[in-house]
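input
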Amino acid sequence: MKAADFRVMVLEGSARERGQAHGEALRDSIHSLVGEWKENIYQDLRMDPDQFLAELVQETHFIPTIERWTPSLLEEVQGIAEGAGLDFNTIFARQLSDEEPWFRLEKKLGRSWGFVENCSAIGCNPRGNAPAIVAENMDTPAYYDGYQVLLHIKYPDSPLEVFMFTIAGKINLAGMSNAPLAICCNTVLPLNYAKDGLPEDFVVRGALEQADWNAAVDFMCRLPHASGQNYLMGGPERVICLECSANQVVEYQNAANVERVWHTNHPLINDDCSIHEQRLERMTEQEQATWRDGSGARSNTHARMNYLNRELRQSNDALTVACIREHLSSHEAPVCHHSEQKITLGCLIMELGDPPVLHLSPGPPCCTPFASHRF
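output
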């Protein structure tokens, strides 16, 4: 994406009003992106996309869970649908960043694993005058490029503000609040999922709407998770990795360097993988060799992890924004993607100081300028 084409939108008012403003302002982009998404579904499944999305909504029980844990976000999604002039099922399913892919796998009998996320996250604790940092390359299908947007969300009757990097029509990819809190997420496909859990997009936004660090961590540990995910979270005093699955939340700690943590897309500590193991039993030996760790032949999760291990494990120096940018721009592994199939849609480096700062590149960080955003 060209920097001149990148949009920053301020959203204010009630949840429904924020969603309506989002949908109206980005209507053309939302319609275009939904069209590409539905074509991708058809090419993958050879199934009517609208029928697939109807089954996704009908055969899962996400909405009651959202109504319990993050009801205002459901209002926001309804507002996006109204503003964009699209049906609720389509816009709601668009929020299911990790749930729609594993639902696809079920439709394909758990044998064809065509969807692989490749996100890399880095975090470091505060040290001296250097603040805590949470950073991530958000890697997505290449057709998402051109639809990036930064939402600056202001809440009524509250000092809370959120920066949310996302695409047109979606409430979340990754972001930070002025608490300050920051959270980014890596798909961990082998971990167990649940059709009645809280979807990942709602988990992230719900955590960022908490008043402080302790409330956010408590929120993450209490809620039922819909999808296997690693959440790298940060507050003013520390950063943590939480590997979350349908049945457990486990903190991953880096024994080699306790002041830092990094993660890619395979489980490091959470062993709640029974669905994946059952799927493996249905595969041929060749398929098992490819998918034993859940990453697949098209993923480079271990290569990226090996690169980050080598670069980040030994040094005792405080990590700087420039240093993190260099690592997330690396073409080794590669950490930074720009191919016909995948792209690093954006790179977020979130400093949790006073004041907090979001350094954002709306594209591959190796070649896309960063801009700094402050509340």
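quick obs: The chain has one domain: 1-375.
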